[in-house]
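ok so for the tutorial part 2 we go from a plain amino acid sequence to predicted structure tokens. step 1 is just haveing the sequence, like this:
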Amino acid sequence: MGAWRELLLLLPRLGLLIARLVKDDRVPLSAKLTLVGLAAYLASPFDILPDFIPFLGYLDDVLVAAVVVDGLLSSVEREIVLSHWPGDPASLERVARAAAAVSAFVPRRLKRRLFGGRSR
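step 2 — the prediction. this is what the tokens look like for a chain of 120 residues:
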């Protein structure tokens, strides 16, 4: 699959993943609340950087999504996430690496706080 096609499929896959994880009883409440917050932030017309600013307007969305995905994959069993991921396992691993790289400069304690203090 081409990189551009995979990138275009990422947002719908994340949306489906969030919806499925929120319904799963194995996912901690703190992770569910963070996922709902991410969905609300991404759907909201109000952003840290307005979306009408070319390129920069979407950077905050990418950063917030990356921090949440990285934190999610650190606080929820990978098997649970994989059971709900609508793509193949290799695509989830690529997303995980990209999210970790983007969110690397965000303090770990902030990510732990978003997911209820749990971190592996």
